Amino acid sequence: MIKKITHSNTLTILNIWTGVFLVLAGMVYFYKNQVLDMSLSWIIFGAMYLVMESYACDCKQPKRVIIFAWAGFFLSAILFVYYIFN
């Protein structure tokens, strides 16, 4: 039996990965630049994504929420990779 992936499962996975990428980007930024304020901003923002997981999506437009979740995931991954190689 194949389990269908629902919007809430997709949002959960995307929020977790977005949060992890943002926390890691903040850590890499601090390691390379030794600037505490900007790195803490990314870490706190990533932590907020990780706790967003506990809020259910009761929205009337789940497609738009999924689109922004994917955008957040890709952009946070790009930021993380940028900080590693810059």
Description:
The chain is mainly α and 86 residues long. The chain has one domain (15-85). It is built from three helices and no strands. α1 runs antiparallel to α2 (36-52) and α1 runs parallel beside α3. The mean pLDDT is 79.
Question: Key terms for this structure?
Answer:
single chain, 86 residues, mainly alpha
Q: Roughly how much helix do the residues carry, as a percent range? A: over 70%
- Low-pLDDT parts are none
What class, by secondary structure content?
mainly alpha
* Structure summary, number of beta strands: 0
Query: What does the main sheet amount to?
Result: none
Q: What would you report as the Rg, rounded to the nearest angstrom?
A: 14 Å
Query: Can you tell me the number of structural domains?
Result: 1
Mean pLDDT figure = 79
Approximate strand percentage: under 5%
Query: What is the general shape?
Result: elongated
First-last Cα distance: 45 Å
Order of helices and strands: HHH
Number of helical elements: 3
